[in-house]
Write a structure and sequence with these properties.
The chain is mainly β. It contains three helices and 21 strands. This is C2 domain-containing protein.
Length: about 300
């Protein structure tokens, strides 16, 4: 029996003190009493903030195999604006892992114990937790994981949210099989999508060899409900990425939309591995050049003033 299993944990919080302030709080997930000496083991931290008034995060973590007494999860909430190592502790919530996986993805509510026993007034602080066993279908088939991120880019736009879709080739056309969550480019012009995890059955790839697995990744800019614009696309074979060297640029090509915001970009294959029926791929868009708006272009091309 495996000594661990993989779960995807989703966390949202309501009534968390200070959560309406744009401080980008984080949630840290730990298993209680599993470290040497009976301490807690950090499993992962969820840093994708979806909403400042009702923070929501998602993360994939490795959870130790259940002990005879079960596995107790603890989620601690912190504010990130404080210097590293001294982040303000807002409170914590806890729940048995088995109570979450038993309902497979359904939300389980847990009261948040505020730091210092603080009241803070108003409504009670509540965390909504859910967990799904990512590898529950691994006994019958294979699993697929995809990481996509943007490196630091020269970006001149305002608030920009991106998402991507994944399609597979079938009978001469593309069939969409998955869509990522949206991610927002940070002030450092960097974006990280949540890891996409699917079984080969869900992707319609069961029974197809890697030689015949061709996928299309299309990146879109989200412009509002029901409105989006294609930024560009990458088509690749899984086998092609598995053979690429870590960090290799040029193994696959990013094709920009001629009418989109991106003029050009390169694709770096950060890793491509297949281990114990799990295919893991990681892609990073690098050297991204964004199209300038007319006013921004004029300002960018204006020569710097020189003192006399």
């Amino acid at each position: 029996m495996s000594a661990w299993h993989q779960v995807e944990i989703k966390v949202s919080a309501r009534g968390l003190r200070g959560s309406i302030v744009r401080t980008d709080p984080i949630a840290v997930v730990s298993s209680v009493g599993t470290a040497a000496g009976g301490g807690d083991t950090e499993l992962g931290r969820t840093e994708r903030l979806a909403n400042t008034t009702r923070p929501a995060w998602v993360t994939g973590v490795r959870v130790p195999a259940a002990t005879p007494g079960g596995t107790l999860l603890r989620v601690d909430f912190y504010h990130k604006e404080v210097a590293p190592g001294t982040s303000a502790h807002l409170g914590y919530a806890s729940s048995p892992l088995e109570a979450l996986t038993a309902v497979d993805g359904a939300q389980v509510s847990a009261a948040i114990v505020r730091a210092g026993g603080g009241g803070g007034g108003g409504a009670k602080a509540v965390a909504h937790l859910s967990a799904s066993d990512v590898y529950q279908q691994m006994r019958e088939g294979r699993a697929f994981e995809l990481d996509v991120e943007l490196a630091e880019t020269v970006f001149y736009g305002g608030k920009t949210h991106l998402f991507y879709t994944l399609s597979r080739a079938a009978a001469g056309h593309w069939v969409r099989v998955a869509q990522s969550e949206r991610t927002r480019l940070s002030e450092f012009r960097w974006g990280q999508f949540d890891t996409l995890k699917r079984s080969f059955d869900e992707l319609g790839l069961a029974g197809i060899g890697l030689d015949g697995t061709t996928l299309l990744l299309q990146v879109y800019r989200y412009k509002g409900i029901g409105s989006h614009r294609l930024v560009g696309h990458i088509d690749f074979s899984v086998e092609q990425l598995l053979k690429a060297r870590p960090g290799e640029v040029g193994a696959v090509t990013f094709t920009p939309n001629p009418m989109g915001e991106v003029l050009s970009a390169d694709v770096a294959v950060m890793h491509g591995t297949e281990y114990r029926n799990v295919v893991k791929l990681s892609l990073k868009l690098v050297n991204v050049s964004w199209r300038l708006k007319s006013a921004e272009a004029a300002a960018a091309l204006q020569p710097p003033s020189q003192g006399r």
